[in-house]
């Protein structure tokens, strides 16, 4: 694949549109709740009736400032709303209110975790407040296009990155980082299915070692992490193919079609709109002071990178484990609840990142919707720690808990999974297995240590997983020594 | 209607009618019927009204009378009024003088309309205006030109020409207007009535169809300063629906209206008395200034050195804002839509091509151009900078004087059609009023006499929030003159 061709370097910048979790719209009192009947959440202002005026929702300001502080950015003490003019049926005023020259959030950064455990700093150029458009609906009325303006006027921040990413994987890591962050600081629900979090990707390639950027294409309409990676990789391949075939990349906007898994041209730079930005005379400049900023700073929760550092120093977790657990605030809170009960960091980390994460992945379930609560999960881990059940039995118990069969103790009781720690019972099982496998046992005795696993496995099977593996090991060793 | 006097309500000012209502000499229903009858009689000739809301008016008048009978009436309860058709009125056609909104019934009331409703006024109808308030002669209206009651061959001024002509011909005791570059003051001058444009932000713009958002301001147009003060009392105040409305204490504009003018310093900008000013208008204005001297005022020559920039600055800023404000009229959600569009582009192009008149299209084009990439700095940005210079001129002047006076317009009402093909000459009829909007200051026009039988307006400009002072200065003059009580013969 040419994307990993050593001759080319990839340059990516992302523009993320993130819906702010306000109850009402950014310039009107209409509700922002998702999924209502078309146009039932569009008031006179959202419909852009003659004579109506926008009134800025200060809650959107608070959330945007919170984001700025979370990425260590400069906050615009004076920000200005501008009109971006373009005609489209889902844009009721035929201009979008956004921020052009003076955004609320200036230069900041986030650190992303790379696969090799390293981190990389990605610059954020700016983040500005703006309103979302409505939605065109095709096929509802024959021969006509319907317009649903429920979404029109929903508050967004558009987060613009520096062109700091060098692979689709880095772009995904950055997008995930921002996604996690906005949920951490509770400024967005981050719901990608409902369009609360989506991005445009600016992609270009250049020969390795070349300073100046190649001509970029902007890919619009990407609404999942999977699509970001696929869309960017496709675009990289397309661009390299074009250049290697002697062609030139033209600056253009391309649309990612998830169904066909390809990007296609929407419009070239020559066809690009002249948006004729100018300050919106209906809205006053937004002026904030230090006290306002400090108030919001004091409301910030422990940020992901702070949490990660604490997990490493306080809990002694590895960088990778700390990064994985702190990637999501809900996951981190779950983990901390489990640790608080079990008082066993290592066991908790292993099980949260192991069995629990595997289950969530398999079930495509968010941790917030886990069918096993942190408290119930902690009880199970305590039963491992106090040797009531073996680790292998615990996995079955966890599955049963997930399926709603009760708490750990109930399932252990009902299924008779309590670990056998009675040494005479285990000795009997060990002796029986040795008697049935004398040949292998002689080899084990003569130093073929690999066979140890075989015997432990046989005995665990005979005990239906209930034997305490440590005890089993101990007794076999005794038998080897002829005791 | 046996009493002869009761048949002549149109000779009364709003203040006088208010007294009669309070004294029980007349009911709101009687007044409303009286003015509806006058509208019915004269509107065909003058074309002041786009919509007459007779049924609604009579119902509101009845309710006002009941309110009065139950002891809950205020000074405005039951008084008939006409609204410029730029204000959204719930359940009533709100056309803004355009084919684009010929079918638009507003589902809500403008704040001005709500406030006046709460004060108990009775709306007689919606007055004619230049399309989207773009014009100085009322000839750009989709509903045809309005005639000047003093000479029906002449324009009434614009854009609030219908409101001005309705008051001048006493089809309504008072009306509302809006002023972006002179649209209250210039037609008030040309029709011989009194109009005030308050400080930008005094009156809510919510529900007032936007022309140029940073300049638009609503105000009353009546027979006298006292009448305007009465109505303005019910119009001002902070409105949370308009972010540019100002959080300043509302005043009772009647309180200081009788204050003597001794020692009043009147600034006379030399730029307002120079080339381009009609000689007869000049001498009428100077005569009125003599009157002010007699009232104790001092005349001081001042300069507004950047005022010559106001017309060019205005014709960049206002069209730029308008080009965006009028984009919403796209045929998608309400208003005019062209027949059988073949595709989206065709719908936009023909809807706007057919729905807007020539002057509106001209200004949209100018504004779009001024905001375009590569031209923005040279036009829009530069105009904004010059706007500051113009404001600074006034700031400096108000360190030396209390009010500024001069002619409202360089000439009296011109003939219908006379300037239709010469937009520049048309734009110059607002040369003395535009700077006031650019600075956001309050300004008035009061009748100061006649030139060749046509009214001449005296413009009075005040410092920010000096509406009370302006009304006082106007009122004192009107106590010693009767220009404001004169009614065109054919409508007397």
Give the distance, in angstroms, between the N- and C-terminal Cα atoms of chain B: 19 Å
The unreliable regions of chain B are: 1-5
What is the highest CATH level, the class of the domain at 5-263 in chain B? Alpha Beta
- CATH fold-type name of the domain at 5-263 in chain B: Amidase signature (AS) enzymes
Number of distinct beta strands of chain A? 15
The residue ranges of chain A in which pLDDT falls below 50 over 5 or more consecutive positions are none
Give the proportion of residues in helices of chain A: 25-40%
What's the CATH H-level superfamily name of the domain at 5-263 in chain B? Amidase signature (AS) domain
The number of helical runs of chain A is 15
- How many structural units, i.e. domains of chain A? 3
Largest interface: A-B, 28 and 44 residues
Inertia-based shape of chain A: elongated
In round numbers, the mean pLDDT of chain B is 96
- Per DSSP E runs of 2 or more residues, the count of β-strands of chain B stands at 11
Shape of chain B: globular
């Amino acid at each position: 694949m040419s994307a990993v061709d050593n001759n080319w370097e990839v340059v990516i910048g992302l523009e993320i549109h993130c819906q702010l979790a306000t109850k009402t719209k950014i310039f009107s009192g209409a509700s922002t709740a998702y999924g209502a009947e078309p146009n039932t959440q569009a008031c006179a202002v959202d419909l852009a009736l003659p004579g109506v005026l926008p009134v800025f929702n200060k809650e959107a300001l608070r959330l945007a400032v919170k984001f700025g502080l979370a990425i260590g950015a400069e906050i615009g003490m004076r920000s200005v709303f501008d009109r971006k003019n373009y005609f489209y049926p889902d844009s009721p005023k035929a201009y979008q209110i956004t921020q052009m020259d003076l955004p609320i959030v200036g230069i900041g950064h986030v650190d992303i975790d790379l696969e090799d455990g390293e981190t990389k700093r990605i610059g954020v150029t700016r983040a500005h407040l703006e309103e979302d458009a409505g939605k065109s609906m095709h096929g509802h009325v024959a021969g006509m296009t319907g317009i649903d303006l429920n979404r029109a006027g929903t508050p967004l921040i558009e987060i613009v990155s520096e062109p700091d990413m060098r692979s689709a994987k880095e772009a995904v890591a950055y997008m995930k980082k921002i996604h996690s962050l906005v949920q951490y600081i509770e400024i967005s629900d981050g719901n990608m299915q409902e369009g609360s979090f989506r991005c445009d990707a600016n992609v270009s390639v250049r020969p390795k070692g070349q300073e100046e950027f190649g001509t970029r294409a902007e890919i619009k309409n990407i609404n999942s992490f999977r699509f970001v990676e696929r869309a960017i990789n496709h675009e990289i391949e397309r661009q390299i193919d074009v250049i290697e075939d002697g062609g030139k990349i033209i600056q253009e906007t391309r649309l990612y079609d998830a169904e066909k898994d390809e990007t296609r041209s929407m419009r070239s730079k020559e066809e690009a709109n002249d948006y004729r930005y100018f300050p919106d005379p209906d809205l006053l400049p937004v002026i904030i002071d230090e006290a306002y900023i400090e108030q919001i700073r004091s409301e910030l929760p422990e940020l992901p990178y702070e949490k990660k550092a604490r997990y490493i120093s306080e809990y002694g977790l590895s960088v990778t484990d700390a990064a994985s657990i702190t990637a999501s605030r809900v996951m981190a809170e779950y983990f901390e609840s489990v640790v608080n009960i079990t008082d066993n960091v290592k066991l908790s980390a292993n099980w949260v990142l192991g069995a629990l994460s595997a289950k969530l992945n398999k079930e495509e379930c968010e941790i917030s919707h886990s069918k096993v609560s942190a408290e119930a999960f902690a009880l199970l881990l305590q039963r491992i720690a106090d040797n009531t059940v073996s680790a292998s039995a615990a996995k079955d118990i966890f599955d049963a808990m997930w399926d709603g069969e009760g708490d750990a103790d109930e399932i252990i009781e009902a299924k008779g999974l309590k670990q056998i720690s009675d040494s005479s019972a285990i000795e009997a099982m060990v002796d029986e297995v040795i008697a049935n496998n004398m040949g292998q046992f002689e080899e084990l005795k003569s130093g073929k240590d690999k066979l140890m696993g075989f015997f432990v496995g046989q005995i665990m099977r005979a005990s239906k997983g209930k034997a305490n593996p440590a005890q089993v090991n101990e007794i076999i060793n005794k038998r080897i020594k002829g005791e | 209607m046996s009493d002869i006097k009761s048949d002549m309500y149109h000779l009364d000012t709003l203040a006088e009618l208010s007294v009669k209502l309070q004294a029980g000499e007349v009911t709101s229903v009687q007044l409303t019927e009286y003015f509806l009858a006058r509208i019915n009689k004269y509107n065909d000739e003058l074309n002041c009204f786009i919509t007459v809301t007779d049924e609604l008016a009579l119902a509101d008048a009845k309710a006002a009378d009941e309110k009065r009978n139950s002891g809950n009436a205020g000074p405005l309860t039951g008084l008939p009024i006409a609204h410029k058709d730029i204000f959204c009125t719930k359940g009533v056609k709100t056309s803004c003088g355009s084919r684009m909104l010929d079918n638009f019934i507003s589902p809500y009331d403008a704040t001005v309309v709500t406030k006046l409703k709460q004060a108990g006024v009775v709306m007689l109808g919606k007055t004619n205006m230049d399309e989207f308030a773009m014009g100085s002669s009322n000839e750009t209206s989709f509903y045809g030109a309005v005639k000047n009651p003093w000479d029906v061959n002449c324009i009434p001024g614009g854009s609030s020409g219908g409101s001005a002509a309705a008051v001048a011909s006493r089809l309504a005791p008072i009306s509302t207007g809006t002023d972006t570059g002179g649209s209250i003051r210039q037609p008030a001058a040309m029709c011989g009535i009194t109009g005030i444009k308050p400080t930008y932000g005094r009156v809510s713009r919510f529900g007032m169809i936007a022309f140029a958002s940073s300049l638009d301001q609503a105000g009353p147009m009546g027979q006298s300063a006292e009448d305007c003060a009465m109505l303005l009392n019910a119009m001002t105040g902070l409105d949370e629906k308009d972010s540019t409305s100002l959080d300043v204490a509302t005043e009772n504009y009647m309180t200081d209206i009788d204050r003597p003018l001794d020692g009043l310093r009147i600034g006379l900008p030399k730029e307002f008395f120079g080339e381009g000013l009609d000689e007869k208008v000049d001498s009428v204005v100077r005569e009125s200034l003599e009157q002010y001297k007699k009232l104790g005022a001092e005349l001081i020559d001042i300069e507004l050195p950047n005022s010559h920039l106001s017309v060019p600055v205005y014709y960049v800023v206002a069209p730029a804002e308008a080009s965006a404000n009028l984009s919403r009229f796209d045929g998608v959600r309400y208003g005019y839509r062209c027949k059988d569009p073949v595709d989206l582009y065709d719908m936009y192009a023909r809807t706007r091509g057919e729905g807007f008149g020539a002057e509106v299209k001209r200004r949209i084009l100018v504004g779009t151009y001024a905001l375009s990439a590569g031209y923005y700095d040279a036009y829009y940005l530069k105009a904004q900078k010059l706007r500051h210079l113009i404001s600074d001129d006034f700031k400096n002047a108000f360190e030396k004087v209390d009010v500024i006076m001069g002619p409202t317009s360089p000439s009296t009402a011109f003939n219908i059609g006379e300037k239709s093909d010469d937009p520049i000459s048309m734009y110059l009829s607002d040369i003395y009023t535009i700077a006031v909007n650019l600075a956001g200051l309050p300004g008035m026009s009061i009748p100061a006499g006649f030139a060749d039988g046509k009214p001449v307006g005296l413009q009075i400009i005040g410092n920010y929030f000096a509406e009370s002072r302006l009304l006082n200065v106007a009122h004192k003059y009107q106590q010693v003159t009767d220009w404001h009580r004169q009614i065109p013969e054919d409508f007397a």
